[in-house]
Amino acid sequence: MSADQSPGSRMRRAVQERGILPCIGVYDVFSASLAGRHFDSLFVSGFGFAASHYGLPDIGFITWSEIVNFVQRIRTVLPEHHLLVDIDDGYCDAEVACHVVSVLEASGASGVVLEDQKRPRRCGHFDGKQIMELDEYIAKLRMVLATRRDLFVIARTDATDVDDIERRVLAFAAAGADAVLVDGLKSLDTVRALSSRVAQPFGFNQIAGGKSPVCTLSELRDAGVSIVIYSTPCLFAAQPAIEDAMLALRQQDGSLAGSRVGVRQCTEVLQENLARRQAPEVALRRRE
To answer: Which of 73, 93, 91 is nearest to 83 (CA)?
Structure first.
């Protein structure tokens, strides 16, 4: 694969050429398959992964090897989509972060989000976060940037003080991050103030019920945002759908009458994945 056709390079071009790039958070390969029918950019969400794989909050249970395996499984069935991966703080020290980045890039990831939270971590939209010293984070970021080949690297801060946010975003940009992101913002004023001061694309994280305002893509683009991460739409959509289905099953004396999806509709999605992972001539013979 030539460098200009690598997943990282293709994502970089998408960010440059489109007015704004939405990345949809997924929590397993099936949700990725469904989201991938509608959007070509997906986000491997730490919140969603922790909920799906452990049934626990996203406070540091995730291991890097499990995230790599998850990305490999998504990439197998969605070979052309942009895959942006949440890697927290890199899972430990700088050497581990660099190893994770190398393995993820070899596994087909398009980009990663590296944050400056300390462990034990919290969701970016909750209080009580602990932040690394800026020098410590910048040293890790620079090592990651020196290690990757074409991988798109977003530097994220969870700082809450306005002056500290500004200092960190400018430092991230100066270090050479491909994009910057401030998580848990309560308004777009910070984005408007800082997006014009850095050459890199500005990211924004949308999560239902979080601290940040609910915005349209047009509003975010006008504020200077280039990349929008939707962390949990698939996970949050699944929760009431499963609850409603279980309630209906109890109320209807175990009858499945009224189910919106049956075995055929579900299998269609799985067959699409099977066809994409096969050589084109094999997929054609199967259809014939």
So the answer is: 73
